[in-house]
User: What shape does this take?
Amino acid sequence: MLISLAPLALLAQVAAPGPENWAYLTCMTSRAAEVAQERLPEAEFKQRLQSFCQNERSTLRNVIVRQQIADGRTREQANSDANVFFAEIMEQMLSLRPVAPR
Assistant: This one.
């Protein structure tokens, strides 16, 4: 399976440059590739992905929120920005799920 990390790398750099990005993205990409091998239905695939990399996600969320607040965003806006970031990452990870042949 070929995985393009370019869109993820760009998204992560915009959100919060640093090793926290790479720890989370590496964990998620690795786990998504592993779970994709199981050919699960989309809902189960997503549920499994959401359970992975919680420590890395929490660390990165804190970095994103701190950075956004430092840039003048309110805590609520910063948390919303983090939610959007993680939703985008999840969409990228969901795209790794193989689709059954027609």
In short: Residues 75-94 form the longest helix (20 residues).
